[in-house]
Every structure is written in structure tokens, then in C-alpha cells.
What we know:
Shape: globular
Number of strands: 13
Number of helices: 16
CATH topology of the largest domain: Rossmann fold
Distance between the termini: 11 Å
CATH architecture of the largest domain: 3-Layer(aba) Sandwich
Order of helices and strands: EHHEHEHEEHHHEHEEHEHEHEHEHEHHH
Oligomer: single chain
Strand content: 15-25%
Amino acid sequence: MKIGIDARMYGPKWGGGGIGRYVEELVNELQKIDSENRFVLFLKRENFDACKLINQRFEKVIADAHWYTTKEQLIMPRIIDGAHLDLMHYPHWNIPLRAKTPFVVTIHDLILLEDPNSARATTLGPIRYAIKRIGYNKVLRHAIEKSKAIITVSDYVKGSILTHFNVQSEKIHVIYEGVSSKSQLPNYPIVQLPVASPYFLYVGSAYPHKNLESLLHAFSFFVKKHPNVRLVLVGKEDKFYKDLKKELQEIDIDENAVIFTGFVPENVLHALYANASLYIFPSRHEGFGLPPLEAMRHGVPVASSNRGPMPEVLGNAAIYFNPDDLEEMVEVMERTQEDEILRDELVKKGNERIKRYTWETMAKEIEAIYEK
Length: 372
């Protein structure tokens, strides 16, 4: 077969974190395992060179249209249909409506339907946002109804799709994301970190559903008893991180207690994970939740929200809290900081938990969907 992959979000630097990682790992693993099919990867100019080809059956094509735009809807159908593919894989719901090529789609979450706060979070004016919201609903419904198969990243997301849409359960395939084993970690050189231990770590966006405002407030209570601990927030600075910094100014907390790193390269991110005393994940809504598993891979204990798919994904390898209960969040911070036995137990369970998830397995199961 000749299969296309919409790889415009390839790489976390360009694809907004989790989805960018998903596309990057899928492409890389398929190149290692597939010797039967031919693949066409559609990339933007900015990440075209970052996508390295090691398999002669793969080729790259520039499709320089940003996601969620009118341009995407106008030019992508011509580019995709012009490649004469047997099948197209869209790793996100943003499907070009006029494209004729049969497709499968990965739905990572339905946060915009399930979280009103995130649904209203936008940099657009009210009229432009209303128009975009209508477009989102139309494109998402098209992706669900017209796809040959739907891939989801957790049973939780599958359940959400079945709740919101009239679709056969058999059409939806749960394929978990992966996490590289410790032996696969590159041998990064030692780097100078922007913070000294001990510190709590969060990696990701600052969208409202990530619940970082509550994390700041909870940490402001915790740090009064533990003034030597810092909170490190890693994520590309945008409107939402700027708003979070403004929120911090309104909280009774030492300005040096919270460190915003912005986007960091892989070697620095690796070091930040490896030296953290706790990874904390306060999100109210997720599709899968990869960063806590990344923390487990680095031997870091994890405290997580008990919402969405997190208990499904993390199992007994994390300590959980209600993301809307600040006192409970503070209590978990204190327990993980003071109880060495608990910390050691979480690390041990985390080492076992990550063995369930590999990018190679994910790619093989997705390849089987293509073949089917």
C-alpha cells in the first residue's frame, strides 16, 4: 500500500508537545519495522529537515499549511489527493473536509467538548472564536463519521467518543502511546540546570484544563513549610503561560519559589526530569498523559490528578489527588516530600509500569490498522 501520514505536527517543538511527540515516534518506529508499504510524510517547512529518513520506502512532501486554518482546508486536499494514496492517517482530528483519500484518524481527547473553560480559552475575539468553534465541531464530526477507523490513546477517550457521537464501538481501537526505556535514553552531556534540587516538576502547556493555577495556589501553602523546595514549570511561553505569571503575582509566595523555563531542548529536559524530587500532574482533563510516564522512566515519583485516564494509564504507580481540592494537593506534596518509603515504592512501581508502554508496540498496532 501507499500510505500518507499528516506529519505537520512532527516533533514536540513544532507540534505542541504531546501530539508532536506522538507523530515523531510513530514515524520513526514505522521506518524501523515496515518493509512492505510505501509512506508519504506531509511536513511543514519548519520541521521538514528535522524529520530524518532512514527507510527508502519513505518520502517527504512539503505541505506548508498550519493546522486549524482556512489554508489547511483549502490546500491540503489537493496535496493529499495528488499523492494518489491508498490510505491517509491523520494523527489529530483536523481533517481537510474536501480530501477524497480514505483515512484513519487518531483522536487524542475531546477536551474542547468536555471542559467548558478550555473551550472558551482562546486568543481570538468572540466573533472569530464563535466561527472557529463551529468549524471545530464540523471537522471533528467529519473525522468521526467518515474515517475508516478511529484510533484512541485510552479507554477513557473511547468512552468519551461513544458518549458524544453515534459510532460503532468496533470502529474505535485503543492503542496506548509509548515511552522509551531507560536503555534507550541518549547519553546526554551534563548541563547546567536553571534550578537546584529539591524541586517539583511539571512539563506541558498551561491551557486551563491543565489546572496550573490550582497548582500554584497549593504550592504557595506547601512552600511556607518547605521554603527550600522550588516548583519548575516547563513549557513554551504563550498567552496562557503569561497569564499564569500574572496569576503568580497575585499569590502570597516568594517570586523565586516558582521557575518558568519556557521551551527547553531535549538534553535540558532530560536533566530536569532526572533531578526532580517529584513530578506533579494536576490536570483535570487528558487523553493519555505522557509526561508522568516520562518522569517514571527517569526514576522520579509521580503525584497525579485522579481525573480522566490517569488511573487507567498510571495504575498503582502514582499517588493521586483531587485536582479541585487544594488541601489534598498540599497533603500529597508533603507526604511525597517527607516519606522516603513512599517515594521509593512509587519509583519501583513506576519502573514496572512503564514496561507496559513502548513506541514500537504502538507503531505495530497502528500498522495493523492500516493493513486491516
